[in-house]
Amino acid sequence: CDAGAFCFTEERQLCPSGSTSPPGSSSSADCHCVSGYWESNATEAGPPECHACPANSGSPANSLSAAQCSCFAGFWQSNVTDQGEPVCQACPPGHYCAGGASAPVQCPVGSDTSGGGKSSKADCLCAQGEGHDDAFDCVPCAVGSFQPEERGQLCVPCAPGKTTAREGAYEACL
Predict the structure, then answer these.
(1) What 3-state class would DSSP assign to 58?
(2) Main-chain phi, psi angles of 123, to 5 degrees
(3) 121-145 pLDDT, tens per residue?
(4) Are the CB atoms for 122 and 132 separated by under 8 Å?
(5) Partner of 162 at 20 to 30 A CA spacing, among 71, 119, 135, 170?
(6) What is the pTM of this model?
């Protein structure tokens, strides 16, 4: 019998929605919930009853409770339902959200995001004349580089033989 089904005697039956089984399965008990689903009847005999995780969340395969559903990156858990499912909302503008139950983290001073739903500090954009350092903090562009965009990430180095008049330049090299 192929994956996603079980063969009892000669009859091939598909695993229930949201579940799968390994090749060669012979019983509905071989079916298990796939990632993004959780099983509500794991202690009972028979096929699993798989429920999709709520919007903007997922779970590992073989999850046995709604509590194993976790918010995706770019979303944060604002609440939990009575069934233990996370309520996942888009990360607000000016913040980034790693996912899971983590609260939104505000972008460093002087930076912002271009809208909501951002997942990392690298999504925080700098003001003109500033670019990200290795820690994704905004720092003034060094002499010999510039950043012309209102919301940019990297300082642009000047061509050989050209430079800028000052640190933090946002106009092209001279």
Answers:
(1) strand
(2) -80, -10
(3) 999 999 999 999 988 889 999 999 9
(4) yes
(5) 135
(6) 0.80
